[in-house]
Amino acid sequence: MNRNRLLAGLAAIALAVTGIALLASPAQAATLTEVTNFGTNPSNLRMHLYVPNTVAARPAVVVAVHYCTGSGPAFYSGTEFASLADRYGFIVVYPSATRSGSCFDVSSPQALRRGGGSDPVGIMSMVNYVLQHNNADPNRVYVTGASSGGMMTNVLLGDYPDVFKAGAAFMGVPFGCFATTDGSSWNSQCSSGQRNMTGQQWGDLVRAAYPGYTGARPRMQVWHGTTDTTLAYPNFTEEIEQWTNVLGISQTPVFTDSPQPNWTRTRYGNASAQAPVEAISISGVGHSLPLAGQAAMAIEFFGLTGTGPTSPPPSSASPSTPPSPSSSPSNPGPGGCTSTVSINQWQGGFVATIRVVAGSSATSSWSVRLTLPSGATITNAWNANRSASSGAVTFTNVSYNGTIAAGQYTEFGFQSTGTAGTLTPTCTAS
């Protein structure tokens, strides 16, 4: 099999993931556990499971699928999904490919049909294991992944539309795009972005994976950098065409915004945060997603951020870099809001996650003000607008998270240079 080009291109992911690990280390109190004998496993995948110390009643399940050359443990330690699980009380399954190159099978005829064999069957056995052994909610099963894992996200949504409620594919390709019949796992036409078909043709490939299925289809979020040369950017457009067709909605977006500089987000079918299809294009970025904060946007797209676990999750920082304690909530009063902050600090920088909790009445908009210490400068923020990068900064809601039901919450975050010290956010709402 010729994977040389893919493996070389994916070296950037390993570096990016290493950087992300510094930003948001998974929780230390709970541990990643390997599960064996989890069920039918035709391609000898390995399964690792992360169960937070505090889970929601009937927890959701998120399958997080690694890139080529990676592993489940590497994806666990290098992305934010475990720390988000601590916060929101869901369970994360981390599959590991064991074949040469550690890529997932997204190309064989067996992989591209329901129950056909290969990796999708093994991953489904992992999901079923968690549903049976962890009292998880079969109506809240989701999948996300990067590169090879992004391609597998597309495949699983096509093979098992009755199992997965939504997916978030980082740097993937459409279902069936990588299909081969010669026993190889590489499709140069697809990887270079030269496999162009109509939405109907792409949709027919998905429908052929489970002939006769007439039930609901999962929602899809896709991410891609415009300068990706490993799985070329045109695949982003082809994914949009495929999933809008599968879901029976227009390819014309009903909502467009820019949540971050150089990002373009479009929504299809409706303009809500859980639209049928959401697509985020990032200008000037190559094959290096997800970046800090993007995992949180995937979890929000899944709809898992509205209500967290019933008791506070354990700290997500490592013992050598303990988090700053959360600030005391501001006094909301009726219709107001409170805000707390948690910090992941490392040498030379930190990430702050701020939770905005509505008071006794729902909010329609909110703002949070805080003052950064001298020497701290915000380099990136997500799920909020900001007035400045240093000193006194006011964060305001973006279009999709201003409305918070009474007693519920939303979260935003930012990355900064310097030392966090003691941050004291003050929240106001209307």
From TrEMBL:
Source lineage: Bacteria, Bacillati, Actinomycetota, Actinomycetes, Micromonosporales
Organism (species): Dactylosporangium sucinum
InterPro entries: AB_hydrolase_fold, CBD2, CBM2/CBM3_carb-bd_dom_sf, CBM2_carb-bd_dom_sf, Esterase_phb, Plant_Biomass_Hydrol_Est
Stored PANTHER family: FERULOYL ESTERASE, UNNAMED PRODUCT-RELATED
Bias type Pro residues, positions: 310-326
Pfam families (UniProt xref): CBM_2, Esterase_PHB
GO biological process, one term: carbohydrate metabolic process
GO cellular component: extracellular region
Residue ranges annotated for the CBM2 domain, each copy included: 330-430
Tree of life domain: Bacteria
Leader peptide range in chain numbering: 1-29
Segments of this protein annotated with the region Disordered: 304-340
Entries under NCBIfam families matching the protein: esterase_phb
Keywords: Hydrolase, Signal
Listed SMART domains: CBD_II
GO molecular function: hydrolase activity, hydrolyzing O-glycosyl compounds; polysaccharide binding
Gene3D superfamilies, per the entry: 2.60.40.290, alpha/beta hydrolase (3.40.50.1820)
Protein name, entry field: CBM2 domain-containing protein
